[in-house]
Amino acid sequence: MALFPWVSQAERLFYNPGTLDGWDYVRHEHNGAVEEVTNVVYEGSTALKMSQRYDASYSGRYHSETDHNDGYQRGDTRFYGFMFRLSDTWEFTSQGYNIAQFIANRPGAGCGGDDWMPSSMIWLKGNQLTSRIVSGEYRQPDCSRNIRQLDNLATVSVGIWHKVILQVTWKSDSTGQYKIWFDGEKVHDSQGVATTVNDDEIYQFRVGLYANSWYDDGYMDGSQSFRQVWYDEIAVGTTFADVDPDQS
């Protein structure tokens, strides 16, 4: 252990093997669903299936997500990992579909007409994995922040399991870092950057299908009104191995 001091510091802070148990909250808005299934899994015997259905007469949001409340606080350095799988018939369109996010209840933020303010998010834009880094000031009534979008990180395929791992040092000054691995390949590495806003609110870590473009754009692009994404092996930890399903 003296030769490898980092081993004693490694800690898996959260782990879910694709079950409904163990989450702080399970949300499914309108016609959405979050289900524990056994027929499509990456590892073990269960996975989570998130689904949403578009409704032209509905004006609300389209979350189907599970929440882990202790996602991060400014100053933390953490790793996050999960497996996800799009349905075999997933239609790629110009609209975005969020698959994971960090978010906090921020009264007064005014983000989209409510008090929830997301920071980093991971979503699909067409068949491309996309993310963003958020920094700046808290409590601006128009929710304006510094948002750096990270486009074309990797190509996502339908009907197969993909692995996403993040390493983030959450800082509001120029000492943060933001790294993403996709299917074992590092696809983004920002160091010496601000990665969160300038206060110490605790952000949730959520995984799931959030069809945010249906709400933001006010319409559905394409012909696929029913969407499904599966999730498995979701984890938060202090080292890469803590959250990598193929090492843990």
Key structural traits:
single chain, 248 residues, mainly beta, Jelly Rolls, 8-stranded antiparallel sheet, 7-stranded antiparallel sheet, 15 strands, 6% helix, globular
* Low-confidence spans: 1-8
Regarding CATH, which class? Mainly Beta
Q: Which architecture name does CATH use?
A: Sandwich
SSE series: HEEEEEEEEEEEEEEHEH
What does the main sheet amount to?
A: 8 strands, antiparallel
Fold-level CATH name:
Jelly Rolls
**Helix share bin:** under 10%
How many domains comprise the coordinates?
1
The computed structural class is: mainly beta
How many strand units?
15
Instruction: State the end-to-end CA separation.
Output: 19 Å
Which shape, going by the Cα principal axes? globular
Overall mean pLDDT: 93
Please describe what this structure looks like.
- It is a single chain.
- This protein is mainly beta and 248 residues long.
- It has one domain: Jelly Rolls.
- Helix content is 6%, strand content 50%.
- The chain has helices at residues 6-9, 212-217, 240-243, and strands at 12-16, 25-28, 33-37, 47-53, 63-72, 77-86, 96-105, 116-125, 128-135, 146-155, 161-169, 176-182, 185-193, 203-210, 226-237.
- The strands form two sheets. Strands 1, 3, 4, 6, 11, 12, 13 and 15 form an eight-stranded antiparallel beta sheet that branches.
- The longest helix is centred in the last third of the chain and has 6 residues, at 212-217.
- The protein is globular, with a radius of gyration of 17 Å.
Task: Provide the fold topology.
Blueprint: H1 6-9, E1 12-16, E2 25-28, E3 33-37, E4 47-53, E5 63-72, E6 77-86, E7 96-105, E8 116-125, E9 128-135, E10 146-155, E11 161-169, E12 176-182, E13 185-193, E14 203-210, H2 212-217, E15 226-237, H3 240-243
Antiparallel strand pairs: 1-15, 2-5, 3-4, 4-15, 5-14, 6-11, 6-15, 7-8, 7-14, 8-9, 9-10, 11-12, 12-13
